[in-house]
Amino acid sequence: xxxxxxxxxxxxxxxxxxxxxxxxxxxxxxxxxxxxxxxxxxxxxxxxxxxxxxxxxxxxxxxxxxxxxxxxxxxxxxxxxxxxxxxxxxxxxxxxxxxxxxxxxxxxxxxxxxxxxxxxxxxxxxxxxxxxxxxxxxxxxxxxxxxxxxxxxxxxxxxxxxxxxxxxxxxxxxxxxxxxxxxxxxxxxxxxxxxxxxxxxxxxxxxxxxxxxxxxxxxxxxxxxxxxxxxxxxxxxxxxxxxxxxxxxxxxxxxxxxxxxxxxxxxxxxxxxxxxxxxxxxxxxxxxxxxxxxxxxxxxxxxxxxxxxxxxxxxxxxxxx
Length: 321
What we know:
Elements: E1 2-4, H1 6-12, H2 15-28, E2 36-40, E3 48-56, H3 59-62, E4 69-77, E5 89-97, E6 103-108, H4 109-128, E7 135-139, H5 145-155, E8 160-164, H6 168-180, E9 185-187, H7 191-195, E10 200-203, E11 222-225, H8 238-243, E12 244-248, H9 251-257, H10 259-267, E13 275-278, H11 279-283, E14 296-300, H12 305-319
Parallel strand pairs: 1-6, 7-8, 7-10, 8-9, 10-11, 11-14, 12-13, 12-14
Antiparallel strand pairs: 2-3, 3-4, 4-5, 5-6
């Protein structure tokens, strides 16, 4: 069994390559039960969340009884970690042989999650963002934010990247790191002003108070919502949902877990049939993405085990030799 570090994941993957790997994965499908959520109460501080995300090759769809893989990601989300300088999200990915169940690889789950989450957003943007989208606003300065900047830049001609965070110093650090890689990145201080100028807004926070005000979005904007993963978390307000054509990564996950979708559905603002498509339907050409340059599109991601499986297999295949 290989033990694969974060640095090795970085060496095994590219952003354009993983976007195309995920496109094929959503087109071909896999077996992915709805993930398990468990609240881990603590005597002091905010509760942690334990997530279990299994998936395996769909042998029936593939028409074969040999080969394939089984995978499971074990993730904890501990919001209080930020106060002690540690990532809120921790995890490991276990990849197994699909025929024998033998362990093949134990992969750094944080890094795999960062790659696949950002590339799933970029995959959605390849259908939903304008072809000429050049100004990217990233909301949040956590570990995922530079991955979102890199991934969106792999599918659209991004010329300017702005980073906003409640703690300006954190935004400045992310921007400086991206500048060192050759991106034209800088920290933003006025979120409302940035919302009115961005072509793509990519948000990765765990806020329960919406930061993205739909009234401020200009026509043609693509909104990418990544952070909220429970029904109480919400990054966009009702105006953003009402003005947008709404898309999700998976209907089963987003309509159960994502506050940006669950809350508008509960209030009646968003009807179930108003969710235009998920990534399966987009990748298979069953539904259309953006249809006009001036429409606002909104994509909500909660994460799918299919993404981890596809990314884990790609890393394993790149390193096993």
